[in-house]
Amino acid sequence: MGVTIYQMEMSHRKFADTLNVVIIQRVNLSTGEISHVNLFSTDVSIGL
After folding, report:
1. Over its length of 48 residues, how does the chain's per-residue pLDDT go in tens digits?
2. Looking at residue 5, what is its pLDDT?
3. Cβ(25)–Cβ(33) below 8 Å
4. Under a CB-based contact definition with an 8 Å cutoff, are residues 37 and 23 in contact?
5. How many distinct structural domains can be found in the chain?
6. Residue 29 lies in domain
7. How far apart are the C-alpha atoms of 14 and 10, rounded to whole Å?
8. Is the Cβ–Cβ distance between 43 and 22 less than 8 Å?
9. E strands of 1-48, at which residues?
10. Is 48 inside a domain boundary?
11. Is position 10 within any domain?
């Protein structure tokens, strides 16, 4: 298994709050199958 985690703060067009966005991507190295999870929070003090 290979796991990659992306984390960034992003702005939304429709409201003023900054979003904390985390994307977790998992790759099965033997089959090449990819899965991912997207997490969103308005609490930008949460970090990895």
Report:
1. 899 999 999 988 887 888 899 999 999 999 999 999 999 988 877 665
2. 95
3. no
4. yes
5. 1
6. 2-41
7. 12
8. no
9. 2-11, 18-27, 34-41
10. no
11. yes
The Cα 4–Cα 22 span in angstroms is 11
Contact 13, 39 (CB under 8 A): no
Selection from 22, 13, 15, 14 nearest residue 44 by Cα = 22
Per-residue pLDDT at 16: 82
Q: CA-CA distance, 26 to 20, in Å (whole number)? A: 20
pLDDT at residue 4, as a whole number: 96
Report the alpha-carbon distance of residue 26 to residue 24 in Å, rounded.
Answer: 7
Q: What's the chain's length in residues?
A: 48
pTM across the whole model: 0.75
What tokens does 13 get? Answer: 């067009």
